[in-house]
Write a structure and sequence with these properties.
The protein is an all-alpha fold and 70 residues long. It has 2 helices and no strands.
Length: 70
């Protein structure tokens, strides 16, 4: 009766982490970007959801983090 079916498993292991990434990238963008870049990136992330969050993570977040480390 309380078993997890495929939709619930997908929600737990795919949708929730992607939602968390989406929120995290919106917050990162809002706090780290400057000027019009901030607005453009937030619009991209909000309207493309997980895809936009992944793109922002790969294009802006990782290079900025690597620059700080090295």
């Amino acid at each position: 009766m309380f078993g997890l079916g495929l939709p619930e498993v997908l929600l737990l292991f795919v949708a929730l982490p992607l939602f968390a990434l989406w929120i995290w990238m919106i917050v990162e963008c809002a706090t780290k970007e400057q000027g019009t870049d901030r607005i453009v990136w937030i619009i991209i992330i909000v309207f493309t959801h997980a895809l936009g969050a992944v793109i922002y993570f790969l294009v802006r977040y990782l290079p900025r983090r690597r620059a700080v480390r090295g």
